[in-house]
Amino acid sequence: MKRQVDIAIIGGGAAGLAAAAAAYDEGARNIVIFERESAPGGILKQCIHNGFGLHRFNEELTGPEYASREAAAVSERGIEIEFEATVLSLSSSKRLTVVSPTMGFVEVQAKAVILAMGSRERTRGPLRIAGTRPAGIYTAGTAQHMINLEGIIPGNNVVMLGSGDIGLIVARRLAYEGANVKAVYNRSHFSGGLKRNIVQCLDDYGIPLKFLHTITSIYGKDRLEAVGVSDVDKATKLAIPGTEKIVECDTLLLSVGLIPENELTSQAGIPLDRGSSGASVDEMYQTSTPGVFSAGNVLHIHDLVDYVSEEGEGAGRAAARYVLDSAYEEDSANAREEGAGYSKVVPGNGVKYVVPQRISIKASGRITLRFRVRDVYKDAKIKVLVDGREIKSVPKRVLVPAEMAQVKIPSKDVSGSSNVEVSIEFGGE
User: Fold this and answer.
1) On the chain, which terminus has fewer CB atoms closer than 10 Å, C or N?
2) What are phi and psi of 59, to 5 degrees?
3) What CA–CA distance (Å, rounded) separates 87 from 10?
4) CA 34, CA 41: separation in Å to the nearest integer?
5) Cβ atoms within 10 Å of 301's Cβ, excluding its own
6) Residue (of 27, 2, 9, 4) closest to 322 by Cα position
7) Rounded to 5 degrees, what angle do the CA atoms 202, 208, 214 make?
8) What's the farthest any 2 CA atoms get from each other in the chain?
9) What is the mean pLDDT of the chain?
């Protein structure tokens, strides 16, 4: 079976839903969202805590409430969502192969594609922790799914490795349910989660957060019985031999970061940015392949879903213009070579990555540059340099890797330049 669509959106989470509604409002009509789960919303469905939507909806919502609002906007516009639809492949010519129980195997040719696949958690494998393979080891997101959607408590005596936001929230959720969360261990000297989550999820419940510690051994046959915890050298981030202590537990949760789901992106031959692990895009979220756009956690990992939706909207509007405006499509094709007609955006001192990675010479209005810093910086300034000339300096009391930062610049200050650099000037750590 073959099918033609104007805009194919891969993923029905916050980014994909917002992209679909924005594309429709921009004039596109033949839009289809391919979602591999049986309901829209992505990870939001299992995030039953509040704190979502303050920027986007000006009120505090739970994850499911936020997802329902985005899904309602899609439903009101009559936009089609194919559920339980897995995209198996994506080509550079914007051809998708999709399989689902209702459609069977389908080849979909799209005029434009929006990548909104989200992210996944790092598992035990890449961490190379020595030991057996007993039951009782989960990622924090898996544990959250078990508790909130299936009513299953993963364990009674819990140790957590890593302090990402999902892990911190799950630690609190376990404490609600009466589990003993013994400690959260963190390899680095700073947390991977937001400060407010450390306070509300750990400090308020007496759960210790221990920096410069990591899990080096796992013990147990059928069920986890204990883990070995070692001190970590701050400079090398390696475990210090001879410092391992045994901590008894029946559950180990891993909250050691998220990875953008970019297998389809790579399959389509779209280059990835080493810093963000997502596609390299312009200010309209278009990748190096004309007509293919990327937004949300598949582009770079966010702290706030509000900004995921904002990026989805930007990608949706741009995809609609690409489909409906032949001049826009021609400009995109002419700029196929990365760098042609663009200012290159680069991370400077103290900055890990910046999105977007390039700005079109035809960009208009204000451009939002989002980025993460490499370390904890106090008494800092965010500086934006255009061909070596400073155009903006924003003072910040503190910048931390766990919190995505952003700065907005007028496009007229960039037009015609070769290089835009975002860097950090700081007074201490």
Assistant:
1) N
2) -155, 160
3) 7
4) 12
5) 20
6) 27
7) 115
8) 66
9) 94
What is the rounded distance in angstroms from the CA atom of residue 20 to the CA atom of residue 112?
A: 12
Pairing outcome for strands 292-294 and 104-115: parallel
Q: Which two tokens stand for residue 408?
A: 């907005």
Q: Classify strands 119-121 and 258-260 as parallel, antiparallel or unpaired.
A: antiparallel
Q: Show Cβ contacts of residue 414 under 8 Å, excluding neighbours closer than 6 positions.
A: 343, 359, 363, 367, 386, 420
Residue 78 neighbours by CB distance under 10 Å? 9
| 62 neighbors 52 (Cβ within 8 angstroms) | yes
Residue 199, both tokens: 């306070």
Per-residue pLDDT tens over the stretch 89-99: 999 999 999 99
Residues written for the chain: 429
- Residue at 241: amino acid letter: P
Give this prediction's pTM: 0.93
From the CB of residue 250, how many other CB atoms can be counted at a distance below 10 Å?
A: 20
Phi and psi, residue 249, nearest 5°: -165, 160
User: pLDDT tens digits for 151-176?
Assistant: 999 999 999 999 989 999 999 999 99
SS3 call for 201 = helix
Instruction: Tell me which residue has tokens 């489909």.
Output: 323
Q: Could you write out the DSSP letters of every residue in 259-307? A: EE--HHHHHTT--B-TTTSSB---TT-B-SSTTEEE-GGGTS--S-HHH
State CA 279 to chain mean position distance.
12
> Can you give the C-alpha Rg of the chain in angstroms?
22
Q: In what order do the strands lie in the sheet with 137-139?
A: 137-139, 251-254, 157-161, 180-186, 209-211
If you search the block for the tokens 């994909």, which residue do you land on? 16
- The CA-atom distances, in angstroms, between 242 and each of 120, 129, 193 are 33, 16, 29
Nearest Cα to 318, choosing from 278, 360, 286, 340?
286
